[in-house]
Amino acid sequence: MNRIPKGASLTILSDSCHSGGLIDKEKEQIGPSSFDDKSATLKPSDHKPKTIPYETIFQHVSSLTNINTTDIGTHLLEFFGSEASLRFRLSSRDLEEGVLLKPDEGILLSGCQSDETSADMSPNMSNGKAYGAFSNAVQIVLKENKGKLSNREVVVKARDVLKGQGFVQHPCLYCSDENADDVFLLQMLEL
Description:
The chain is α+β, with helices and mostly antiparallel strands. Helices cover 32% and strands 10% of the residues.
């Protein structure tokens, strides 16, 4: 994050569980407080979320570092060194002062809200490999809409696709007002 040039924005499309709110200090444009998602009626879905228990991840990382501490940050810093997230390399004072990310430096299109899981699509024609339902919905939206779409339009339309497919996850958008209405990944119009 700290290597992004001044004036540039980072766009993250995260099709992972609990990804809502993943980016700090950005305004929620589409998410749990901007829609009444609880009133949505969806047909039942046959997807099963995949999760790895925290304890399993912690045990694996601990076995790699051979450090006797329950602080996951210490293990990640030891294992990744200078490539570890700034969240683990900076002091708590720097973190409180917002050194990591300042407003309007990021755009997050998350596959679901922070309390939800992101579903996988059933592998039909992809050589048996599963793929994310949100990523698939975004690709459908881009194929069906040949003109430029804003970040907001992509998320709203992807929500509609997922709802039509029977998925119960609710993609979100976190960014500034300006970036919400900017063109998604600077799409080029086809001639």
